């Protein structure tokens, strides 16, 4: 942090870099400790844990809260552990390496429960978070960055520093990335440094491990993954879940929830990508259909169906304004389950209205951002009832998680 306040710093209720003491009561959805000082004033302190008494240094005052850096832990939490990465606290990639893993899981479960209540208005028990079989070296993809060369030299190759919007920290090794990626990283970094004079601007690198242990470094390289006995191919630069250790259980749960009770004969995967949920669940249904706006993703999904001999699953490109029209004449909504896995920003009101109009018997909503997921549930719950909420920890040591919510037609 700079020694001088920014021009926009507001000096109330605290002065720039004023040191305060407070007790941390909870965690925010960004993974910051939350405490109250000066009466009932909320202060967010990164890397502080619930139950701790800390000293913190103020660096921002907002109209309703302040933000502070952790200076000293006066009374530590029994769940505080030693981070396994020497860059933890400086690198912005991880938020929880100092937090015992069982406690990480419980706080993630509580946060889903709170979001469900506050954003969807629903009081509903959230299942314990399914843990990742690995808590380190689990990521099969990383995307380090570097900035524009200065005098023909590239400096840091890594990720954003904690609390900074542009400044990078150099990351020669990443202990949450797979062993294969860490083995390839020095070679990739050296190639960038050696070619520094050829870069006119900064760039983002790609390292993605394929099923055979090789590491793809070009977005158009073809990667492979195996999930639940289904073999997938996809471009390395395209979206595919990047924790292969938990992915089989994750996909199997989505399939079970879609097929629960045996009441549905048809499956629609409405954001199908290269076919992950559609192909791993197809055996539970008479017919399955994957729908995507991206024609390129549809081509890969079709290839994956063919190479796995799955002949009851079709893939179609759907227009954003009429995505269910591709199946409306063939699939009886009363016998159909729909899986949706939208981007982090959630579904659009237009899509949710189309889903309600189609009216499937079951909806399985997969999300990497429970906040937008619970917001969208508020749109669906008048027509659907909530039957299951299951978080999965695809991202140990970070604030992120995946959540699978199952709904039935009311």
Question: What would the keywords be for this entry?
Answer:
single chain; 410 residues; alpha+beta; OB fold (Dihydrolipoamide Acetyltransferase, E2P); Rossmann fold; seven-stranded mixed beta sheet; five-stranded mixed beta barrel; 7 helices; 27% strand
Describe this structure in words.
The chain is α+β, with helices and mostly antiparallel strands and 410 residues long. Among the domains are: 1-80, Beta Barrel (OB fold (Dihydrolipoamide Acetyltransferase, E2P)); 102-134 and 241-409, 3-Layer(aba) Sandwich (Rossmann fold), CATH 3.40.50.150. The chain is built from seven helices and 21 strands. It has a seven-stranded mixed β-sheet with strand order 17-16-15-18-19-21-20, with helices on both faces. It has a five-stranded mixed β-barrel with strand order 1-2-3-5-4. Helix 1 (101-120) runs parallel beside helix 7 (370-380). It is globular. The mean pLDDT is 94.
Question: Secondary-structure map with pairings?
Answer:
Blueprint: E1 19-27, E2 33-37, E3 41-45, E4 53-61, E5 65-75, H1 101-120, E6 141-142, E7 145-146, E8 157-160, E9 168-170, H2 179-194, E10 203-204, E11 207-209, E12 215-216, E13 222-227, E14 230-235, H3 247-259, E15 266-269, H4 276-281, E16 287-292, H5 295-307, E17 313-317, E18 336-340, H6 349-358, E19 362-367, H7 370-380, E20 384-392, E21 402-409
Parallel strand pairs: 3-5, 15-16, 15-18, 16-17, 18-19
Antiparallel strand pairs: 1-2, 1-4, 2-3, 4-5, 6-11, 7-8, 7-10, 8-9, 11-12, 13-14, 19-21, 20-21
Helix pairs in contact: 1-7
CATH topology of the domain at 102-134 and 241-409: Rossmann fold
In CATH terms, the superfamily of the domain at 102-134 and 241-409 is Vaccinia Virus protein VP39
What's the architecture of the domain at 102-134 and 241-409 in CATH terms?
Answer: 3-Layer(aba) Sandwich
- Which class do the helix and strand fractions yield? alpha+beta
* Tally of alpha and pi helices: 7
Shape: globular
């Amino acid at each position: 942090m700079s020694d001088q306040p920014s021009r926009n710093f507001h000096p109330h209720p605290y002065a720039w870099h004023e040191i305060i003491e407070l007790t941390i009561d909870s965690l925010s959805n960004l993974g910051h400790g939350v405490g109250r000082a000066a009466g009932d004033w909320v202060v967010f302190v990164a890397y502080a844990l619930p139950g701790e008494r800390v000293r913190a240094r103020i660096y921002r005052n907002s109209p309703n809260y302040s933000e502070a850096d952790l200076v000293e832990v006066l009374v530590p939490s029994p769940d505080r552990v030693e981070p396994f990465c020497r860059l933890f606290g400086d690198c912005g990639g991880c938020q929880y390496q100092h937090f015992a893993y069982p406690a990480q899981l419980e706080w993630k479960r509580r946060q889903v429960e709170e979001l469900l209540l506050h954003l969807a208005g629903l009081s509903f028990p959230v299942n314990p978070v399914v843990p990742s079989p690995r808590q380190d070296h689990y990521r099969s993809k990383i995307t380090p960055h570097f900035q524009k060369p200065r005098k023909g030299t590239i400096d840091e190759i890594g990720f954003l520093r904690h609390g900074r919007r542009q400044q990078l920290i150099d990351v020669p090794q990443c202990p949450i990335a797979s062993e294969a990626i860490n083995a390839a990283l020095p070679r990739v970094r050296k190639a960038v440094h050696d070619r520094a004079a050829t870069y006119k601007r900064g760039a983002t690198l790609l390292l993605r491990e394929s099923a055979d242990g090789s590491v793809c470094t070009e977005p158009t390289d073809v990667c492979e993954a195996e999930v639940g006995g289904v073999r997938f191919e996809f471009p390395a630069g395209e979206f595919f879940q990047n924790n292969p250790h938990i992915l089989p259980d994750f996909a199997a749960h989505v399939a079970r929830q879609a097929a629960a009770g045996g009441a549905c004969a048809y499956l629609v995967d409405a954001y199908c990508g290269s076919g992950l949920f559609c192909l791993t669940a197809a055996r539970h249904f008479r017919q399955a259909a994957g729908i995507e706006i991206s024609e390129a993703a549809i081509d890969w999904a079709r290839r994956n169906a063919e190479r796995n001999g799955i002949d009851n699953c079709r893939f179609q490109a759907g227009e954003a304004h009429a995505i269910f029209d591709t199946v409306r004449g063939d699939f009886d909504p009363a016998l159909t389950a729909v899986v949706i896995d939208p981007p982090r920003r959630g579904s659009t009101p237009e899509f949710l209205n189309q889903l309600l109009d189609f009216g499937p018997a079951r909806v399985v909503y997969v999300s990497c951002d429970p906040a937008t997921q619970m917001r969208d549930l508020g749109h669906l719950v008048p027509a659907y009832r909530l039957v299951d909420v299951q978080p999965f920890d695809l991202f140990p040591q970070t604030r992120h998680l995946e959540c699978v919510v199952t709904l039935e037609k009311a």
